[in-house]
Amino acid sequence: MLEVIVSPITGFCFGVKRAMRLIDEGLGDGGRTIYSIGDVIHNSQAVEALKSRGVKPVSSMEELSEGDTLIIRAHGVMPDLIDEALNRGIELIDTTCPFVQKSQKYVREMAEEDRKVIIIGDSRHPEVRAISGQSGPDPVILSTLEEAKAVSGIERAGVVIQTTFSREKAMKIIGQLETNIPDLRVHDTICQATVLRREATLDLARNVDMVLVVGGKGSSNTKRLFQMCVDEGITSRFIETADEIDPSWFKDGDRIGLTTGTSTPDWVLEEVLARLREISAR
Length: 282
Ligand code: F3S
Hints:
The strands form 3 sheets. A 4-stranded parallel beta sheet has the order 1-12-10-11, sandwiched between helices. The chain has a 4-stranded parallel beta sheet with strand order 3-2-4-5, sandwiched between helices. Strands 7-6-8-9 form a 4-stranded parallel beta sheet, with helices on both faces. By secondary structure, it is an alpha/beta fold. It starts with a strand and ends with a helix. The chain is built from 10 helices and 12 strands. The protein binds FE3-S4 cluster. FE3-S4 cluster (F3S) binds near residues 16, 97 and 164.
C-alpha cells in the first residue's frame, strides 16, 4: 500500500484559470478556430485539449488573415506583436495575467522616467521577453549574482522580477545591485501564487518519502518546484503524465507527495492519482 498526500495548492493558478475562462468565452459554442502564436500555456496536455476545441497554434502572424482571432498568452507578448495584429485587423483575446501586466506597467513607467530597466529573470522566458519589449532600449536582463556584480556605470535604474523567479535568489541579486547603483527602485513583482505553492510543496516534501512533481517539462514554475525538492535532498520525480510512472519507484508503505505546476490541469493530476491507486492496490 502507498500513502498518497496531495499538496493543498495544485492545479491552475489564478492567471491560468482566468486565461482559460477568456479562451472558453472566445470559443463560444464551438465550431470556431482561434489562434495562438506558440503554446498558450506551458503544458502539452492542456494545449492538446485546447487544440481539439479549436485553438490552433501558429508560428507567426503571417499565417493569420484579417478578421481572425489571436490569443495573447498569459505570459504576455511583445507590444510590437499587438500593434501588428491590430493594424492587420486581427481581433485579440488578451489573457495576459494581471500580475504580468503590472510588471509591464512598472517597466513602461521607469523607461519614461529614463531609468535603466533591469529585469531579474530568464532572458529566454516569454514573460521576460514580453516585459523587455516595454522597457525602452537595451534593458539589462540578469539571473545570477555574478551578472549583478558585473553591472557598472549605471546611476539610476529600476528593477522588476520575473513572476516565477526564486525570491531568495532575487533578494541576493538586489542586494548586490544596491551596492552598484546609487539610485535603484525595486518593484517586487514575484507572484505570490507561486511563492505559496512552493511553501506548500516544501512542507509536504519534508513529510514524505518521495515527491512527484506533475507538470509541463517546459514550465519554469514546475521545473523550479522540482529543483527545490531535489535541493532539499528529497527523492523527487518530474512527470508530465500518469503513463510515465514506473511502479518500481515505490516500495510498500511509502508516503508519496503530489504537487503540480501552475499550468497543470486538474484532470492530469486525477489521472496520476488513479494510477497511484492502481499501483497501491497490487
Ligand atoms: Fe499569473 Fe502568477 Fe499564474 S503571474 S499566470 S497568477 S503564476
